[in-house]
Amino acid sequence: MVGQPAFLPPPGVTVHDANPCFVRPVRHPPRPPPPAGLGSAALATALWTAAPAWAQKENPETYQPQSGQAGKDVIWVPTPDELVTRMLQLGGVTKNDYVIDLGAGDGKIVIAAAKEFGARGHGIEYNPDMVAHATRRAQAAGVSDRARFEKADIFESDFSKADVITMYLLPTLNLKLRPTLMKLKPGTRLVTHAFTMGGWQPDETSRAGGANAYLWLVPANVSGQWQLNYSQSGRQQNLAMSVERQRYQFPEGTVQLGAADTSLRDARVMGERVRFAFTGTDGVLRTFEGKVNGGKIEGQVHDGKKSERFTATRKGDGPAIETAD
After folding, report:
1. Among 24, 70, 112, 229, which is disulfide-ready with 51 (CB 3.0 to 4.6 Å)?
2. Are 254 and 264 contacting, i.e. CB atoms less than 8 angstroms apart?
3. What PANTHER family does the annotation carry (predicted)?
């Protein structure tokens, strides 16, 4: 009976018209070799790094970013809405704050800061199509007067006036930015999505929308020699306090108690505020909490029963904060 062969030929062969039992391979023309010196990995890299150029060929008015598209330093993946809100909460954003987003992408963090928290926001983004897209989104959200975007390189930008800085960058980029961030005014709040900053421990960690957010408070420098004044059992104390080193937000030092000295306990700097404790010559553990203002600290000392005022004055300049991992 004449009909179709009783078997399916394997890939790469055809059935001979006159004899269905005879098959012959299909010969394809050879593929041209890749350019000299361009291996598969390099080819993949070339295609990957070309993606921003493709994106910029889009019609600016209809441009829609795609999750996973390549950018100058990172690929773009949008932050979940739940995490955006939590990041801004973590940063304590209010209507009085100026928020800068490094690598602003589609602008959602800056727009949320303006719309949900009443803040002023500024997004720094390298891709001009993204900048135009984010600007249109801010206009549609009715916050274009408080949310603006610029095409710029984050490593060449000045963000020293920010109260809050948000980021969703790779760890290597966070580390590259870290020296600049450490020089910002004490108390500046830094919030990142997903990635940390090496040896600089976050002050708080949150999770929302299936992802992590981290908060850092740029610490004041309390290193150096201080004169500490407070009341102990009704008598005024005037003690020498030495903060030998401060690694990020963790100072280490001692207080001179006459013929003895004692180490600072649980010492920590939280932005403009500092906390430490030690046991006095009366055997009472006292906790000091104050605000750092240049070479002066003012605050309250607690002995478990009552609180009183204390001051500390620095003598000369202290060493720089240690930031080596």
Report:
1. 70
2. yes
3. METHYLTRANSFERASE DOMAIN-CONTAINING PROTEIN
